[in-house]
Amino acid sequence: MTATPAIAVEKLNVFFGDSHVVKDLSFTVSPGESYGIVGESGSGKSTVLRVLAGLNRDWSGAVAILGESQPKLRSKAFYRSSQMVFQDPYGSLHPKKTVDDTLAEPLTIHGLGDAQARIGRAMSDVGLPASFRFRYPHQLSGGQRQRVAIARALVLEPTILLLDEPTSALDVSIQAEVLNLLTSLRHARKLTYILVSHDLAVVAHMCERLLVMQFGAGVEEMTAATLAARAPKTDYARQLLTASEGFRRAG
Q1: Nearest Cα to Cα of residue 50 among 85, 97, 25, 88
Q2: Can you list the domains of the chain with their CATH numbers?
């Protein structure tokens, strides 16, 4: 018997005015899988993530999360099961709130008790010492801020994390640390990930399968093994791979 997908998207369409930014997109993600969505800027990949997260309510098609069809206006229960980590840890944390305030807020909204233990566990899981609880964002490095953002997503103990370029705003030296943290968290907490990135190396490191998008459409779905073997079927995916490798060599 096949397990119910953690995420199922069918014929998703999104328009911004006259622009058709996501076109008849369909894919499924299995429970516990890490699934990548890659493409150039403007390909529609972050828009897909925002629809999944309930942040964009102007779409058509079908979205099911953990076997339940999702309306455009999501329930509170949805946000307990699915959380998003944004690209920019500078912009996603309130500058006047301590780490403790930031992590306590979702627990208050959802009426969850045992806040001290939950906050302590989330901070421990992302590798932040307890002494950081009463620091403000400006007292943290970029990597530490992103760990706080990940802890905020984890504090409700969701099963799905939606990751929007989670390392692209960070120094190269700490990108790998955060990616390795996310990989270990997925296995420890049995999480399902969707990772949006323009960086094929990041997706190859993090994901079992990936979807290549161009101009709002799904061009090719492949396994990480196909990517590693440099054997995409479509010209566009091959060009993306070549461009990514060329950029890395130049750097």
Answers
A1: 85
A2: 7-250 (3.40.50.300)
